[in-house]
Fold Periplasmic binding protein.
Amino acid sequence: MPRTRPTAPALTAVALSALLLSSCGASVRPQAEAPQALGYPVTVTNCGQELTFDRAPERVVAYDSGIVETMFALGLTDRLAGYVMSGSKNNDIEGSPWKADYERAPRLGVDRISKESILQAGADFVYAGWNYGFSEDRGLTPAHLDALGVRSYVLSESCRNGVGSTSRGTMAPLDALYTDLRNLGKVFGVSERAEQLVTEYREVVRQAEATVPADRPRPKVFLYDSGNDKPFTGGKYAASNEIITRGGGEDVMSGVLDSWTTVTWESVVEANPDVIVINDYDVPSAEDKRRFLETYPPLAQVPAVKNGRFLVLPYAALVQGPRNPAAIRTVADYLNGL
């Protein structure tokens, strides 16, 4: 979801260096050791379920950019049997700190992940999420994969928050990121790398928050993903919520108890945001989204539109993944410059 970059300040040195540190050695796979030496079996808790692994998975299929880049950041590129990513996310690849890893890993498709592509890749593990690949309607769930002898892990941002519920989110977004890094670190025997990343990311976030004036009113921020009749946006449990709030803003949709969902234009107008963050991916482009927002009559008197305050961020920065901490710094720099 990037095309043109915003007029906001570029990534600061600390945020960029943290991303580069995370990508350094992203293709380096730890030397294989006997399971006993690595401490297997290991058990992790994922979306409330305990998962036990007798060995590290060897052939992984991952879906969507934030998930794929988490594998890269953990140094697990060589474990990827392949990844699936919508063609609308090609700009995520072009602008990624892990572009070289994308080029090394096989791309299995540009549509939805499927049981066929998973089996053809000889996968023994799938990393995806609810609405990030997993769907009962398409017959692709962790339970379906278990029946095929393929293990899986669900993106924590997408954990469902009730029996029978399709609403997603059970923890603060950054906690979801750190939880998945640590869990996957245990599953793949790279816990030291996972802890290094968590430490780096916490420091980037700490430094970003330190730039926010304590006595400054927080600008109200609305995240616009897509949609004309009704806007699609991030709620309390989407990574975008903490990207906005820790960057010094007030997420006007933080009261929506979901991760990514549809709201109404009436609620946006009532919230009266000072800034609109545009989620940038290929189609429609960020420019097309901005033009729509600027010409949509109900938004004409909203301060963000009246004052032309739009911040464009790439899709991979706004969904759960290793670009989240640097995105917080980008938001902080933009809001501090208002």
